[in-house]
Amino acid sequence: MQLQLNVNDAKANILFDFLEIFKKDNMINDYKIIDNQSETTYDDEVLNDISQIGQALQDAKNGQGTKTSTIVTLQNV
Known about the structure:
Strand content: under 5%
Largest sheet: none
Structural class: mainly alpha
Shape: elongated
Radius of gyration: 22 Å
Helix content: 40-55%
Number of helices: 3
Distance between the termini: 34 Å
């Protein structure tokens, strides 16, 4: 199981102390601290890709991009 938390930086040390205790007692397997400012998350990448769909479709209508033999059929749209 995974858990993602957004923690107040000023009070984070208390949480880290608890995590270390839980890890020593085998209540949790491991934890990882991720700085949101320096690392792009998977969710950010997906949202960025989705935001570019409109421009990609416009470019395709204008003949830009690379033509491939792949055919995509959308049904029930």
